[in-house]
Amino acid sequence: MKLQCGKFQLDLSRPRVMGIVNLTPDSFSGDGLADSTARAVAHARAQIDAGAELLDLGAESSRPGAVPTSLDDELRRLLPVLEALAGCGVPISIDTYKPEVMRAALAAGAAMINDIYALRMPGALAAVAESDCGVCLMHMQGEPLTMQQSPVYDDLLGEVRHFLAARVAAAQAAGIARDRLVLDPGFGFGKALENNVALLRHLPAAMPPGLPVLAGLSRKSMLGQLTGRAVGERLPASLAGALLALEGGARILRVHDVAATRDAVAVWSAAHGLV
Ligand SMILES: Nc1nc2[nH]c(SCCc3ccc(S(N)(=O)=O)cc3)nc2c(=O)[nH]1
Q: In what residue span(s) does the Pterin-binding domain sit (predicted)?
């Protein structure tokens, strides 16, 4: 399965590791790099050296309880880092839901848009339809500020699958080719522990067929709830979650710990007969 990401074409017949570059001041996992472009760029390059085959740059926190970031603040944090990473050799994804940020990032060389609102904001479909960038469509119930207060599902897997299928249809209707799309169940985005566990246990049933899947479990609270570990002590659980996501068909892993995840993926790939 191939994913078209601007000038890059990703062969997703084997798993790829996407390194998280958090440009917010209040990152949930203590990795915020908002105060220094140089530090953020150095971190991004270190992730590439560690084996990241995509990077995800985010300048607005979407952790539970996060308040929205202004357009100006998001652009001010994002663009210097994106511009400094031009020519880095791997596709740069931008974690944003604002069409204006999408347009500016695509003009500055971003190869993928990672939208936690799945292009539902006015103007978002048009902003990416004009490009040939990759697009990640993610499921979220509610919005970051309140999504974890009381998530409720009648049919979790069906609701996630139907939501994503509807967003795929909307994207295709806007002229966005299927080979540009990757889908994501949105671990921790309006999901209680039992919802996150059910998604991990039955991942294929939550996803419309025939499209690649991205999973982002790294350091998330579901792992803390299952292990009792604080956010900085969740690497073993994050690796276990990553491999379970691969078992469930995910082929892009969005992680903080690139080198460790690459090692876990190497073991998984060998056991699956992948080179
Ligand atoms: N496609 C995609 N993009 C993402 N961007 C983020 S930022 C993390 C926001 C957050 C932090 C912590 C919790 S919690 N309460 O579960 O620990 C939830 C959400 N994540 C993802 C993800 O998964 N996919």
A: 15-266
Residue 167 annotated among the catalytic residues of the structure: no
Identify whether 220 is a catalytic site residue: yes
217: CA distance to ligand 1 center in Å?
Answer: 7
**Nearest atom (ligand 1) to Cα of 188:** 16
Does 3.30.70.20 match the CATH number of domain 14-269? no
Of these residues, 220, 234, 251, 262, which one is catalytic? 220
Alpha-carbon gap, residue 201 to 247, rounded angstroms? 9
CA 167 to centroid of ligand 1, rounded, Å: 19
What's the predicted TM-score (pTM) here?
A: 0.97
50-104 residue pLDDT tens: 999 999 999 999 999 999 999 999 999 999 999 999 999 999 999 999 999 999 9
